[in-house]
Write a structure and sequence with these properties.
single chain; about 400 residues; Aspartate Aminotransferase, domain 1; Aspartate Aminotransferase, domain 2; 3-stranded antiparallel sheet; pyridoxal phosphate binding; succinyldiaminopimelate transaminase activity
Length: about 400
């Protein structure tokens, strides 16, 4: 067996199942889960139709690079959304969702053949694929904490110079999971300067980019690079997906775009990896990337939902409307002494509502786990169900305060 597999930690949802072992939730309440970030809004009918119409192409093997029409659907969307020009022939590739692409990109980029283990930097808290892909690539992972006082911006300045010197890859998640924070242009400028100095690759995970609550859409990595005159996207790859944007998590469809040299190496890796996108999925993807009306409607549903839920929870928890994404990153009340796991377990037992302990989404560095004392709530279900969950959480907290 690959000995690196022993370094992998249990996934957050496995830890949640363990936490709830032996707990029988209150049968007076129907179960409501805010634990998993799986979109629940209906998939648009036109995407379903495009998928079934595309089944006519099942007799042919798909190309790993995708056909030109598929790649042009990516570049067309990038131009409309961000105003950036990307070469459909050399700077984009289809992927089977951003999750597998994040993992595969690390295997492509990281060179662990030297005498000193290379470094990959991840935000903390983080999406666990960043950690797993790093460890299985033979690299050392270093965590850069998010700072609540700066709206959960990542503290890149906390990384020592000697660590930057060994860094080959950093993961950027903007809008962030679980915090919803969006990285501004000044921080992109800082990371580009560090990349130029030390030569590392920036992987920009942007799968939540289309769910936002302000008038101004979140800044993207390619967009930031273009504004700063870096139109070759040197050492930059962005990754995105249709899962959240178009409510098709089961489609497993997304794309990567950026530095042509990295894309070329990534294509080589993927050719051997056997990860070509099937024709039916490609047909549905082309339809989805070409339409914005359903995205606007989807965003409006999230805005209405957060407008209903956030004020209820603000009265009893440290929580506020995020910049973007569909999570609330809520601080548990002082009565729980920062014990997010005890909070989640008791809430599940008494009110049959599932939330994810923030400590499961982060790692302790210097004696501090930046997720401790917080819980992540995924507002992916309908407005009525999410509002009911919020009311139960309010009752749960207020009843604890009165006891």
């Amino acid at each position: 067996m690959n000995p690196l597999l022993a370094k992998l930690q249990p996934y957050p949802f496995e830890r949640l199942r363990t936490l709830f072992t032996g707990v029988t939730p209150n049968p007076d309440f129907t179960p409501i889960s805010l634990g998993i970030g799986e979109p629940k809004h209906p998939t648009p009918a036109f995407i379903r139709h495009a998928l079934t119409d595309g089944l006519a192409g099942l007799e042919a093997y798909p190309a790993t690079a995708g056909d030109l029409k598929l790649r042009e659907s990516f570049t067309g969307w990038l131009q409309r959304r961000y105003g950036v020009a990307v070469d459909a022939a050399t700077q984009v590739l289809p992927v089977n969702g951003s999750r597998e692409a994040l993992f595969a990109l690390a295997q492509t980029v990281v060179d662990a053949s030297g005498p000193v283990p290379p470094v990959v930097i991840s935000p903390d808290p983080f999406y666990q694929i960043y950690e797993g892909s790093t460890l299985l690539a033979g690299a050392e992972i270093v965590y850069a904490p998010s700072v609540p006082e700066r709206n959960f911006a990542v503290d890149w300045d906390s990384v020592p110079e000697e660590v930057w010197a060994r860094t080959q890859l950093i993961f950027v998640c903007s809008p962030g999971n679980p915090t919803g924070a969006v990285m501004p242009l000044d921080e992109w400028r800082k990371l580009f300067a560090l990349s130029d100095r030390y030569g590392f690759v920036i992987a920009a995970d942007e799968c939540y980019s289309e769910i936002y609550f302000r008038d101004e859409p979140p800044l993207g990595g390619l967009e930031a690079a273009t504004e700063l005159g870096r139109t070759d996207f040197k050492n930059l790859v962005m990754l995105t997906s249709l899962s959240k944007r178009s409510n098709v998590p089961g489609l497993r469809s997304g794309f990567v775009a950026g530095d042509a040299e990295i894309i070329k190496a990534f294509l080589l890796y993927r050719t051997y990896h056997g990860s070509a996108m099937g024709g039916a999925v490609a047909a549905a993807s082309i339809a989805a990337w070409g339409d914005e009306a359903h995205v606007v409607e989807n965003r409006a549903m999230y805005r209405a939902k957060f407008a209903a839920v956030t004020p209820l929870l603000e009265a009893v928890m440290d929580v506020r409307l995020p910049d973007a994404a569909f999570y609330l990153w809520a601080g548990v009340p002082a009565a729980w002494n920062d014990d997010d796991q005890a909070f989640a377990r008791a809430l599940y037992a008494q009110y049959n509502v599932t939330v994810l302990p923030g400590s499961f989404l982060a790692r302790e560095v210097g004696g501090v786990n930046p997720g401790q004392g917080r819980v992540r709530m995924a507002l992916v279900a309908g407005t009525d169900e999410c509002t009911e969950a919020a009311r139960r959480i309010v009752d749960f907290i207020q009843n604890r305060a009165l006891s």
